[in-house]
């Protein structure tokens, strides 16, 4: 910082202001490090498979499978995603992900494939991931929490406020806010959105869905952290939605992981009555402003807040405000990152081992399929030679075959136009379980 300010003397006034602004910004900024998702392990997972060809070749194989009604396996999709290098590749991959999502194999998409897709989005176009997550049920991409944290971190660093808030909302809908890093980054995204869109006390929300998601983030994280200020903010906003649109608007369209029992505003007032630790004046002011249309509840809230004020439980300190809480959580981000690294590295190693096993199984199955096709081909050739010999020796020339007779094969992998790699994922999964000695729990139907 000292060196930075010494250099300011040589700059023009406009440059001085900009440099001071940048220095102040970087001095207090605290985001995830580049080592958050182990670069070495990540590279092993996302690098193109040896011998898989380029993006065009992989996509041609997928197209042939679609044309011939053969199953595209999750391993083929994984190889396709690993070949992505440009924004054009990334956009093209969405077609194959969407098509795969609507096939029988879609249930078996691998977690490392979703991880690879996230990494490719980070390298090429992070906004694509935010767009896909809003349509996640159509594309089948459900990233792990550590990948989501990294993307949210990148969006915040790039000052992409809309993208950061959208991703934080998706993390709320995916129910991953129990992760401490997620909590810190999501609250930072909401805090920036709150500050930028607030004219009086409450931000101007674009629609009720965004308001519900922001309120849900505050409420859920407040509950996880046992932070009464965040919880009160979330409850108050959810209560205003309930009062204006009904209780269903708090958890439906799209579905949100929130309690559907009516009375959010009443619970907010009750929480203030039962306070035993300080809360922010910001949250109290918002509660009072949102109960203004309910005279009885507003009087109760005003009386309760006045009592809490007399007890010294309502604080004007920045530490208790949304911005102060966000700053406090960001200061702890290095500690949260260290905890995540320990878990995520183990996860990445497990994925590498599992993928290696699946690749070995895939080679075994494809080799067996090849042997079966060759055996069937020999059988057909012997049958044809025997038939031709019978026609020639016995003179039944009216039975001679003028054209090739196609034999109907119930198994797609026995067809002559079989596409290498087309598999049913259930076959791979069953062999994986056998190889790892994994016992599958039976499904018990209770009538």
Task: Give me a quick take on this structure.
The protein has 447 residues and is mainly alpha-helical. The chain is 66% helix and 1% strand.
Poorly predicted segments: 1-29
Biggest β-sheet description? 2 strands, parallel
Gross geometry = elongated
Helical segment tally?
20
Rg of Cα set: 30 Å
Order of helices and strands: HHHHHHHHHHHHHHHEHHEHHH
Strand order of the largest sheet: 1-2
Measured as a percent range, the helix fraction is 55-70%
Head-to-tail CA distance between termini = 70 Å
- Report the β-strand fraction as a percent range: under 5%
What is the mean predicted local confidence, pLDDT? 87
Structural class: mainly alpha
Count of DSSP E strands? Answer: 2
Give your account of this protein's structure.
It contains 20 helices and two strands. It is mainly alpha-helical. Strands 1-2 form a two-stranded parallel sheet. The radius of gyration is 30 Å and the shape is elongated. Residues 1-29 have low confidence and may be disordered.
């Amino acid at each position: 910082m000292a060196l930075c300010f010494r250099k300011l003397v040589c700059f023009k006034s406009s440059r001085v202001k900009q440099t001071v602004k940048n220095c102040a910004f970087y001095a207090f900024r605290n985001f995830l490090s580049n080592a958050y998702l182990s670069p070495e392990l990540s590279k092993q997972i996302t690098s193109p498979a040896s011998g898989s060809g380029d993006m065009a070749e992989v996509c041609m194989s997928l197209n042939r499978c679609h044309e011939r009604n053969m199953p595209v396996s999750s391993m083929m999709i994984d190889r396709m995603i690993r070949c992505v290098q440009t924004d054009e590749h990334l956009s093209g991959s969405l077609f194959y992900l969407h098509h795969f999502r609507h096939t029988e194999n879609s249930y078996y998409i691998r977690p490392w494939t979703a991880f690879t897709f996230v990494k490719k989005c980070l390298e090429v176009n992070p906004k694509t991931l935010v767009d896909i997550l809003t349509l996640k049920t159509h594309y089948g991409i459900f990233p792990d929490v550590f990948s989501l944290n990294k993307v949210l971190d990148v969006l915040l660093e790039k000052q992409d406020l809309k993208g950061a808030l959208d991703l934080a909302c998706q993390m709320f809908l995916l129910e991953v806010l129990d992760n401490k890093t997620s909590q810190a980054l999501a609250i930072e995204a909401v805090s920036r959105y709150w500050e930028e869109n607030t004219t009086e006390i409450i931000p101007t929300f674009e629609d009720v869905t965004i308001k519900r998601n922001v309120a849900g983030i505050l409420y859920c994280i407040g509950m996880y952290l046992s932070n009464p200020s965040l919880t009160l903010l979330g409850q108050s906003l959810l209560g205003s939605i309930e009062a204006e649109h009904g209780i269903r608007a708090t958890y439906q369209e799209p579905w949100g992981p929130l309690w559907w029992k009516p009375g959010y505003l009443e619970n907010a007032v009750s929480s203030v009555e039962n306070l035993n630790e300080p809360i922010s004046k910001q949250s109290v002011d918002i509660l009072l402003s949102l109960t203004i249309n309910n005279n009885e509840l507003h009087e109760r809230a005003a009386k309760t807040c006045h009592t809490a004020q007399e007890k010294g439980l309502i604080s004007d300190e920045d530490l208790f405000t949304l911005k102060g809480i966000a700053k406090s959580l960001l200061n702890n981000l290095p500690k949260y990152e260290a905890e995540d690294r320990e878990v995520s590295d183990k996860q990445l190693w497990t994925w590498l081992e599992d993928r290696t096993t699946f690749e070995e199984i895939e080679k075994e199955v494809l080799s067996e399929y090849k042997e079966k096709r060759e055996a069937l081909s020999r059988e057909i050739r012997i049958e044809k030679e025997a038939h031709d010999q019978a026609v020639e020796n016995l003179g039944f020339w009216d039975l001679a075959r003028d054209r090739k007779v196609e034999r109907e094969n119930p198994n797609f992998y026995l067809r002559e136009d079989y596409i290498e790699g087309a598999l049913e994922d259930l076959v791979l999964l069953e062999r994986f379980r056998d190889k790892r000695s994994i016992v599958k729990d039976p499904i018990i139907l209770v009538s």
